[in-house]
Amino acid sequence: MAIVWFSLLARDLLQVVFSGTAIVPDFTVLALVWIAVFRCEDATPLFIPAFATGLFWDLRWTALPGVTSSAYILLVAGSAWAWSHIPPGRRGNPILFFVWAIAAHGFSSFLPALLSGHGLGLHSPLVSQQGMALACVLGLTALFIRQGRTRHD
């Protein structure tokens, strides 16, 4: 679970550095998806860290506590549920992991914007955030491929 807290700290520090210029990708979502995929049989220990990191993020950066927490919990539950219903032979598919991670990041990024109505449109900072998240997810998919190869060898 240390990776979840480390990802929250890294995102917070980078958000301070890039304040006013860009929105940093949500590393916490990517860490939660990573852990939920590999622990899809028993994801219940992830709910408390997901809620706590989301609450810390909300209290630090947003005005409405609980929005990010609920998005994180929904993503952990959805990731674990969806990944556990995939046949074991298909779980090592990197394209499936890539699409799932991008969709999870998009959901967690656009949920607060949809609820508040701010930041929507082609020239919004959310578009640049998704572009930066694409690079992060590509790196995470490379780690997924490596993890799958070492796990099956």
Write the layout of secondary structure elements.
Layout: H1 2-17, H2 27-38, H3 47-61, H4 67-84, H5 94-116, H6 125-152
Helix pairs in contact: 1-2, 1-3, 2-4, 2-5, 3-4, 4-5, 5-6
Summarize the structure.
Helix content is 73%, strand content 0%. Helix 4 packs antiparallel against helix 5.
Structure commentary:
- By secondary structure, the chain is mainly alpha-helical.
- The chain has one domain (2-10, 24-152).
- It is built from 6 helices and no strands.
- It has helices spanning 2-17, 27-38, 47-61, 67-84, 94-116, 125-152.
- The two termini are 26 Å apart.
Give the distance, in angstroms, between the N- and C-terminal Cα atoms. 26 Å
Principal-axis shape: globular
| Order of helical and strand elements | HHHHHH
Number of strands: 0
Biggest β-sheet, characterized?
A: none
Supply the number of structural domains: 1
Please bin the fraction of helical residues: over 70%
- What is the count of helical runs? 6
Uncertain segments of ≥5 residues (pLDDT<50)? none
- Rg to the nearest angstrom? 15 Å
**Backbone structural class:** mainly alpha
Structural key phrases:
globular, 153 residues, mainly alpha
